[in-house]
Specification:
elongated; 489 residues; four-stranded antiparallel β-sheet
Length: 489
């Protein structure tokens, strides 16, 4: 249950007579109702409020829930006076004079003066529309139906302040009824009822008569006071619950990503699966990879590389199993940086082969249909085969990567590696690990735009397990990651 649902449940219990017990000594709502009618008549005789039309009797269909026997269903208009807002000509708007409250002044039932409030000349002043302490204002017209009925409580003095035409005042017959009426206006029962009655297309409006005729439950006055006191006692607990709930939500939001982070970190530290002697060593695999690279160089399929610097102890970020080996990225495959064929040659672009940019890589997935190169343009692009890993190496999305399942070309914001005699998925998970991406970000150059050059990217050290262990690591990762995805949903 969310904090909002908990608060709504408490308020619903309150207006159904379930929050506090009933006491015979406090009389009945019928007696209070008769007293209210006398109070209204006195105000009418004194000219303080207008005589209202006789309201229809409440039908059984309008009674939404059961209430205690000592309570009474009444029309809202029988306990409040509804006052419409003032209409004004926009040419009269100024920065001083009579303040006009609008929907934006209502913030979580609080009514606040704002710097951009509208002011009108003093001739607009109408004492009957002056807001007073104890008034409840609500949004009667708005472009958003969800905002219809939004209440605001006038708890402070607002001198020379009227309400605009899109608001209305609900003024209780006596201020002693205000606190209970605030509970009514805060209830989902009231808000849903008002929203359902709103009409209009571009502007939603709820007629004054609809609000006046709203059926509300009325408890005896002393019980009203106890209901208000009980809610005021409970709300601090709701606030504490909201704080705890927010922390839990933040934890739940982070947990799937943290779990994935931990899984990948365990994987590249050799802690996800056990090591097996019969699978050989990473040193043996490394030598096979170097032999394969030499063969490709001799056949002219790849260029000869510069000798790699020895890996120092300072470069090693964590311990790995003895059968593993620390290597540099470029030593386990063929790496390259993308490029973009000259756009002055439109004939280079088409749909013969996908041409990828950073925006085409999202959450490990690849959009192959966004743009492409023609067969001729492919000759001027950087091509990498299926099972290559692509990684963004510049900008705000630096580090995001994906494994391609077909031959692609890519632009200069992306580096690629085609693994040799290694599990391409294992290499992908290493590059997608927080260790690798954090290293990229921490060592990127540039001022406004972070960038990691190809030479530095090639030289990042990564842990290499024996090939069979790579396959088992990938299988274990793919067994566990779906659990992270389910947690997100």
């Amino acid at each position: 249950m969310t904090p909002e649902q908990l608060k709504a449940s408490i308020i619903q219990c309150a207006i159904q007579g379930k929050l506090v017990e009933q006491k015979d000594v406090e009389g009945t709502a019928e007696e209070l109702y008769q007293q209210i009618q006398k109070e209204k008549q006195i105000l009418i005789n004194e000219g303080k409020i207008k005589k209202s039309k006789t309201l229809p009797a409440i039908s059984e269909e309008e009674v939404s829930f059961d209430i205690p026997d000592s309570w009474k269903w009444i029309r809202l208009g029988e306990i409040v006076e509804i006052i419409s807002g003032v209409s004004y000509d926009k040419k009269d708007v100024s920065k001083e004079g009579i303040r006009i409250l609008r929907g934006g002044n209502i913030q979580s039932t609080l009514v606040k003066a704002e710097e951009d409030d509208v002011f009108l000349p003093t001739e607009y002043y109408d004492d009957s529309k002056q807001v007073r302490i104890g008034d409840i204002i609500y949004v009667a017209s708005t472009g958003s139906k969800a905002v219809i009925g939004k209440p605001g409580f006038i708890d402070n003095d607002f001198p020379d302040t009227l309400i605009g035409a899109f608001l209305r005042i609900c003024r209780p017959v006596s201020i002693k009824y205000t606190e209970y009426l605030k509970i009514i206006f805060s209830s989902e029962y009231y808000r849903k009822h008002i929203r359902d009655l709103a009409q209009g297309t571009n502007i939603n409006n709820v007629k004054e008569s609809y609000v006046t005729e709203l059926a509300i439950p009325l408890p005896p006055l002393e019980e009203q006071h106890r209901i208000v006191a009980k809610i005021e006692k409970l709300l601090p607990y709701v606030d504490r619950y909201a704080e705890a709930y927010e922390k839990l939500e933040q934890f739940n939001a982070k947990f799937p990503e943290d779990m994935k982070k931990s899984i990948l970190q365990y994987a590249i530290q050799g802690k996800l699966v056990e090591q097996r002697q019969e699978e050989g060593t990473a040193e043996e695999l490394y030598q096979r990879i170097q032999e394969e690279k030499q063969r490709l160089i001799k056949e002219g399929k790849i260029k000869k590389e510069k000798p790699l610097a020895e890996i120092t102890e300072d470069e090693i970020p964590f311990d790995i199993p003895e059968s593993w080996k620390w290597v540099r990225v470029c030593s386990v495959g063929v790496t390259q940086t993308g490029n973009t064929p000259q756009k002055s040659h439109p004939e280079y672009f088409g749909n013969y082969v996908p041409f990828l940019g950073p925006g085409d890589i999202q959450n490990g997935n690849v959009n192959y249909d966004n743009q492409g190169l023609s067969e001729e343009g492919k000759e001027y692009g950087r091509v990498t085969p299926s099972d290559s890993v692509l990684q963004v190496c510049i900008g705000g999305s630096i580090g995001k990567c994906a494994l391609v399942d077909r031959e692609v070309t890519f632009n200069q914001q992306i580096n690629s590696i085609y693994p040799l005699i290694s599990d391409c998925k294992y290499v992908y998970y290493v590059l997608d690990s927080y260790y690798f991406k954090d290293y990229m970000k921490e060592n990127s150059g540039g001022t406004a735009t972070p960038i990691i050059n190809r030479g530095l990217w090639d030289a990042i050290v990564i842990p290499l397990p024996p090939l069979e262990e790579q396959h088992r690591i990938v299988a274990k990762i793919e067994e566990l990651l779906p659990f992270c995805e389910r947690l997100v949903k």
